[in-house]
Amino acid sequence: MDRQITQHRVYDVSPDDGARILVDRVWPRGLGKEDARLDAWLREVAPSDALRRWYGHDPGRYAQFRGRYLAELEDDAHREAAERLRALADAGPVTLLTATRDPAVSHTAVLAEWLTGDGG
User: CA-CA distance, 80 to 56, in Å (whole number)?
Assistant: First the structure.
């Protein structure tokens, strides 16, 4: 299936977003619930706290983070939320949202690959 997945910061809103899905474990600082314009918040699909702390958004660890996070997506703790995310992506365009400063080296990039089958 050809899924249309984009990713960006939750603070940015675009008319082309499709379903806006926050995939962070904690609510973004300084953002009101109404301002987020979310269709879903799938916190359970985010990396575990231990993995997130280990990674620390260090681009030098991204490749190893990616592998560990892909493994987490298949475990029982993530499976239900991951399948819900797949179902949302099957239904139409999806934008994965994060408060992370650089989504290109975050879990949203890994999720986008995983959802489209590009390297995951």
Answer: 25
Global confidence as pTM: 0.90
The per-residue pLDDT for range 2-18, each reduced to its tens digit, is 889 999 999 988 888 89
DSSP state of 92: S
Token pair, residue 31, equals 């953002």
Look up residue 90 and give its DSSP letter.
H
Boundaries of every domain in the chain = 5-116
Distance CA 69, CA 46 (A): 9
CA dist 47 and 34 (Å) reads 25
- CA gap 68, 81 in Å, rounded: 17
Cβ neighbours around 87 below 10 Å, total: 9
